[in-house]
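User: Can you model how flavin-adenine dinucleotide sits in this protein?
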Amino acid sequence: MLINIQYKDKWPKNWRPKQAVKTCSLMITVRMASLRCLRLCHPTGVAVSHLHTSSRASAKQHYKMLVLGGGSGGICMSARMKRMFGAENVAVVEPSEVHYYQPIWTLVGAGAKTVASSARPTASVMPSGVKWVKSKVQEINPDTNTVLIDDGTEISYEYLIVALGLQLHYEKIKGLPEAFEHPKIGSNYSVTTVEKTWKALQNFKEGNAIFTFPNTPVKCAGAPQKIMYLSDAYFRKTGKRAKANVIYNTSLPVLFGIKKYADTLWDIVKTRDLQINLRHNLIEVRPDKQEAVFENLDNPGETKVFEYEMLHVTPPMGPSLVVKGSPLADENGWLDLNKETLQHNKYPNVFGIGDCSNLPTAKTGAAVGK
Ligand SMILES: Cc1cc2nc3c(=O)[nH]c(=O)nc-3n(C[C@H](O)[C@H](O)[C@H](O)COP(=O)(O)OP(=O)(O)OC[C@H]3O[C@@H](n4cnc5c(N)ncnc54)[C@H](O)[C@@H]3O)c2cc1C
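Assistant: Here's the modeled complex, given as structure tokens:
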């Protein structure tokens, strides 16, 4: 299955960066093998007997197909499962009333889109007839084929698809998230902080504009860099570029994970006079002094303080806490999937998709397609 959501952005009349990323795409590919496998496991087939499907009696609700998370992966899969199993047999557990298309947030941070344009009522994206359980998953118990939700209700399933996304960890940087109450700091990674990036850009006068990349896996590894290019374009357009030092402090030892693209990006950063500092990991923000503290990852314990006029934070990220606390997790806390089929490595009636998984792809749809 290939889902490719594309949009063309509409730039404000007064500026239009030439080489800015104008198209965001999200592609989530589920290999057909996994769907074939689900068909094999369908109750009409014999394969069901060896699955963990015996706990129906003890649960208050039961669904043939239960999807955890109603983000990009969960909504796509529930539509597909509706076609396969029938709407009345599919339920999605998702607490949020609002569904966000996160790739737009890069453009919201750059002032080219509104945050409202990234939002839809969850009810409007939920496939019709599918049961929306408006609650948070607290526990997944694959040995009993049950899930516990916020209000204590136990839901049992025959098949489970886990699409819980990943966890942001702003709190792992000293001074955050409180520092977001101060001006000059923003983050495109959260709906509550993305507009602060645009405010900081607009209020920029002169000094360092710093963009960070954390020392953890991230979703959309290009996004921390994209906002730097868009900011550079905005500074040029508004006549502020001569007074701006545009700095990218990344924990990585490379500018980008794929050499072919990294080579091109090195040419671009040189042409545009963007300063790249590799192996610089943000560990503290001091908003009262407008200082950001970075650790030199090549020499642990050694720190360097940068003053900032604007700071864009990409937070450390980690596995969904619910997945991490369940038997479904691998040793690092990610959902332990077979990379060919997206089927769980220990529980054959459990599947997964998206950022919560341990698939050896980047945490964006485009890379998952490989
Ligand atoms: C700034 C930014 C830019 C990006 N740019 C791009 C891009 O250009 N191209 C691209 O392909 N990708 C991009 N991405 C990444 C893309 O948005 C994600 O990879 C994608 O949303 C992952 O889908 P998912 O379903 O795994 O997780 P999500 O879409 O994050 O959905 C997870 C869902 O699980 C729900 N949930 C969490 N915990 C619980 C719980 N305990 N119980 C029930 N529900 C729960 C959440 O409410 C959420 O709805 C970007 C992301 C960001 C933040």
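A couple of observations from the model: The two ends are 13 Å apart (CA to CA). The chain is about 20% helix and 30% strand.
User: Helpful, thanks.
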